[in-house]
């Protein structure tokens, strides 16, 4: 079925050594919509690598469903889609999606999120205090993973004493394709089960001692006058945990890698800390956390010059789209923390948080965490360099780094 001799975008080995930038450029040249085989599953798909086409798919849920086969790019039995994945907001279509999203949205309003800034900054300072005098650290686990996990656990009502357990569960669920992170798909299912049991205990606790946090907002919310079931809550709990933790950890890790690879740009931010917010947009653009999502065509339609049939699998490749030369210029494949200075609407052009009805509801939270962390990291970890083997996660879903030892001089 394939019309181009490219590597399979749904093969985790394609990403085992990091994001394949040049391969994705070839897709964009052949795109904006490319027809592909998947020898691993036998299920062909359309890879959407142009921004205009990705936006169209994302803004037309009646034509491209998140619910029919779920939003996850991997293949799962239909029974799992119907009885498990259907409980999470990311796999819902209108009108149910908007009703459930309305409940969750109250916990992520900009005003509420901004109120967390002092606590987040105190956490970030402690994180840096723990490593800065040593002159070296394993950056992913000791720095990048800390604030996102602590923050989302606090918002969910999970005590900090359980942090390590949730760190392990999250890794096991997300990275089942990587033998260093989990030994089998069964391990991921067991970890999900453990998370569900934990969430159900939180729900029981809320009945006796109501919580004013995300957990409380979900458990107290109603859809068409009916409260969310505990099963729905448990799966939403997992989605928020993974989305709120892993995505931000990934961006912090990848951002640090990029700054180390471009020391002149890092020095620019040391000298001009007021430019860090705009630099974060470029970090988000250049290495998108969640690489791709799925939609299923509900009817025959032409997209990007290709005739898509009802039932076809459509993959939205956010990372490829974030390097779209038609949008970001001929230097789209170059990392440049000053890009926003000549492209003022950069934040609106990136698709790192998606677009349309499924635009990431936690984007404001993620941006705050990224800002706080980089404002603390950049002045304190001076002249950072890789200090050992950098290892990427073998995953076509999450663009993550699993190990990045670094050395540095202390800024203060």
List the helices and strands and how they pair.
Layout: H1 21-30, E1 33-36, E2 45-48, H2 51-58, E3 64-65, H3 78-83, H4 96-105, H5 110-114, H6 117-129, E4 136-138, H7 139-144, H8 146-156, H9 163-174, H10 185-208, H11 214-220, E5 222-223, E6 226-227, H12 230-261, H13 263-271, H14 276-286, E7 292-297, E8 301-303, E9 306-308, E10 313-317, H15 318-321, H16 325-328, H17 339-342, H18 346-349, H19 363-380, E11 381-386, E12 391-392, E13 401-403, E14 405-410
Parallel strand pairs: 2-10
Antiparallel strand pairs: 1-2, 3-7, 4-14, 5-6, 7-10, 8-9, 11-14, 12-13
In round numbers, the mean pLDDT is: 91
Q: Biggest sheet: strands, sense, closure? A: 5 strands, mixed
Supply the helix-strand structural class: alpha+beta
Low-confidence stretches: none
Spatial separation of the terminal alpha carbons: 58 Å
Question: Count the helices. How many?
Answer: 19
Proportion of β residues? 5-15%
- What's the β-strand tally? 14
Shape: globular
Strand order of the largest sheet: 1-2-10-7-3
Question: What's the gyration radius in Å?
Answer: 21 Å
Specify the helix fraction band: 40-55%
Protein name: Cytochrome P450
Family: Belongs to the cytochrome P450 family.
Keywords: Heme, Iron, Metal-binding, Monooxygenase, Oxidoreductase
Pfam families: p450
